[in-house]
């Protein structure tokens, strides 16, 4: 019989143990400080939660089917807002991603500027962008499209840039050595490598934008969010139940469909 010796177990130094203890204590202290500083009357909060639960939840589970037509039209508008915004973002993010990719622009300064632009765009939440565009173009679905487009551009641009930086540069160098020009290298050496992942991330972002566009109507940017705010203000919880059911069904269908499409693409 052969004897197999196991590798020695790594020794935990005293420094690592002390470090882990300090980190754990800091995390616990942060949570304690957070809950203490909130200054919540937990008794009153729990009492109100129980009362609202008994009053609201049963009505949410009893949807108002008479509002199905209006809810369906608003949900369809939400899907269109998300699709148009995602498409605009995917188109705008492509040149910005090439600008931010270090292996494409040939310099750290240019790629850093591109990354700063994408970071600046990502800094604004969708709801803030929606408020700004509602003020700029009025309370309509176009404001929602612009908010989704700008909000998604930053994230897609960052993902696209990382995809470009991970391509096989040997293909590009081989084409350069064979005398291919920049356009030929782009269309035959770069785009075939990045297209599947670009499409996959764009479709995934459309999934995310469906959820985001569902709440933009709260600030007047169109879609199902407008019905949500009206139903909430009127305490029409039966209609709210219909709205939530529509959102769950549509988001679930789009999630399954987009996941299947992305598997085939990649």
Detailed description of the structure:
It is a single chain. By secondary structure, the protein is mainly alpha-helical. Helix 3 packs antiparallel against helix 5. It has two domains: 45 residues; 200 residues, Orthogonal Bundle (MetI-like fold), CATH 1.10.3720.10. Helix content is 81%, strand content 0%.
Which descriptors would you attach to this protein?
266 residues, MetI-like fold, 2 domains, mainly alpha, 11 helices
Kindly state the percentage of residues in helix.
over 70%
Which series of helices and strands comes N to C?
HHHHHHHHHHH
User: Which oligomerization state do the chains in this entry correspond to?
Assistant: single chain
Shape annotation:
globular
Tell me the strand percentage band.
under 5%
From the 3D structure, determine the CATH topology of the largest domain: MetI-like fold
What is the distance, rounded to the nearest whole angstrom, between the alpha carbons of the first and last residues?
A: 48 Å
Mean pLDDT: 84
How many helices? The count is: 11
What low-confidence regions span 5 or more consecutive residues with pLDDT below 50? none
The biggest beta sheet reads: none
Class of the largest domain in CATH? Mainly Alpha
**Can you identify the CATH superfamily of the largest domain?**
MetI-like
């Amino acid at each position: 019989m052969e004897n197999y010796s196991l590798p020695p177990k790594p020794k935990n130094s005293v420094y690592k143990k002390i470090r882990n203890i300090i980190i754990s204590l800091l995390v616990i202290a942060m949570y304690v400080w957070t809950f203490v500083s909130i200054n919540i009357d937990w008794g009153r909060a729990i009492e109100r939660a129980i009362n609202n639960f008994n009053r609201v939840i049963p009505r949410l589970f009893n949807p108002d089917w008479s509002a199905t037509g209006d809810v369906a039209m608003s949900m369809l508008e939400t899907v269109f807002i998300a699709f148009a915004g995602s498409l605009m973002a995917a188109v705008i993010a492509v040149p910005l991603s090439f600008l931010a990719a270090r292996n494409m622009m040939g310099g750290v300064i240019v790629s850093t500027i591109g990354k700063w632009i994408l970071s600046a765009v990502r800094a604004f939440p969708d709801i803030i962008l929606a408020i700004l565009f509602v003020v700029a173009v009025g309370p309509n679905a176009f404001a929602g499209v612009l908010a989704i487009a700008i909000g998604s551009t930053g994230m897609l641009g960052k993902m696209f840039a990382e995809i470009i930086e991970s391509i096989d540069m040997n293909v590009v160098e081989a084409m350069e050595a064979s005398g291919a020009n920049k356009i030929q290298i782009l269309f035959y050496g770069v785009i075939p490598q990045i297209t599947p992942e670009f499409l996959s991330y764009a479709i995934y972002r459309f999934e995310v934008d469906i959820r985001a566009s569902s709440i933009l109507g709260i600030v007047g940017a169109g879609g199902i969010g407008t019905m949500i705010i009206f139903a909430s203000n009127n305490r029409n919880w039966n209609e709210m139940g219909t709205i939530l059911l529509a959102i769950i069904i549509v988001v679930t269908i789009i999630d399954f469909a987009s996941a299947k499409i992305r598997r085939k693409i990649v």
